[in-house]
């Protein structure tokens, strides 16, 4: 059984200012996306560094604003109705991939309008730069001891781990690390090498959406469902698996 490293969630303290590891992971995600996109832009005559910087900036706003609003609307709408100001209390935690995805889509529409680029041309360009951000986000979840996995049947399971944030102190899957590797590193490698050569329009973005959808759907079976949500379909499907599965299926149908 693995030992949870029990890392202090606060990475740096500067007087009254506390910089959390989760925030640093977001910073690393955006910096990595900017670096990868800059490299890709150098291979294309119709892209430049200014366009890349604006694209990453627009995307960052979409991720943060969309992720927060999505979490509030999809998961904690009751709390929002009771205290609307809670929407702005981002330091309390709570981000949603579904909301972040929608936020990025809106941000990309605005960027496309500014630079007169087509929708899928932009998505095909930026898609290979996204999985590393997902990887850093899951590492941030792991450091914070949140979104841990389901209980394992064998307490001596080699990859099992007890999270100090788990009130039951059960041996669980470190599902955040599974997701970091599968939805992050593995998907990045597939997309990066696939997009290294000219591909048909829609192909790269389709590989990303279907690849992420399938990976996330599979990983949901190792992840503990949110306590206030549980299993919402067929007695075994979580809200995350349902939403992501439908997204991947819809994208596959759209490509065909």
Automatic annotation (TrEMBL):
One of its GO terms (biological process) is lipoprotein biosynthetic process. The chain crosses the membrane at residues 20-39, 51-74, 86-111, 123-143, 177-195, 202-219, 231-254. Keywords: Cell membrane, Membrane, Transferase, Transmembrane, Transmembrane helix. The keyword Cell membrane applies. GO terms for cellular component: plasma membrane. InterPro entries: Lgt. It holds the Pfam family LGT. PROSITE patterns: LGT (PS01311). PANTHER family: PHOSPHATIDYLGLYCEROL--PROLIPOPROTEIN DIACYLGLYCERYL TRANSFERASE (PTHR30589:SF0), PROLIPOPROTEIN DIACYLGLYCERYL TRANSFERASE (PTHR30589). This is Phosphatidylglycerol--prolipoprotein diacylglyceryl transferase.
């Amino acid at each position: 059984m693995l030992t949870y490293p029990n890392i202090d969630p606060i990475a740096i303290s500067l007087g009254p200012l506390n910089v959390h590891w989760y925030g640093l992971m977001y910073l690393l995600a955006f910096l990595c996306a900017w670096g990868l996109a800059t490299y890709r832009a150098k291979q294309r005559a119709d892209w430049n560094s200014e366009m890349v910087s604006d694209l990453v900036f627009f995307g960052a706003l979409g991720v943060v604003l969309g992720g927060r609003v999505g979490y509030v609307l999809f998961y904690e709408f009751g709390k929002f109705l009771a205290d609307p100001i809670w929407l702005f209390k981002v330091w309390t935690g709570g981000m949603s991939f579904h909301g972040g995805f929608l936020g990025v889509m809106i941000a990309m529409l605005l960027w496309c309008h500014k630079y007169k680029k087509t929708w899928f041309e932009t998505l095909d360009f930026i898609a290979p730069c996204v999985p590393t951000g997902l990887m850093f986000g899951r590492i941030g979840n792991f450091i914070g001891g949140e979104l841990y996995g389901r209980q394992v049947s064998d307490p001596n399971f080699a990859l099992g781990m007890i999270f100090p944030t788990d009130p039951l102190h059960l041996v669980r899957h470190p599902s955040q690390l599974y997701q970091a590797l599968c939805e992050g590193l593995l998907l990045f490698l597939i997309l990066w090498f696939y997009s290294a050569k000219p591909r048909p329009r829609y192909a790269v973005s389709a590989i990303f959406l279907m690849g992420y959808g399938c990976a996330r759907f599979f990983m949901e079976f190792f992840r503990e469902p949110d306590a206030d949500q549980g299993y919402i379909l067929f007695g075994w499907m979580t809200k995350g698996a349902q939403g992501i599965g439908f997204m991947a299926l819809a994208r596959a149908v759209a490509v065909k």
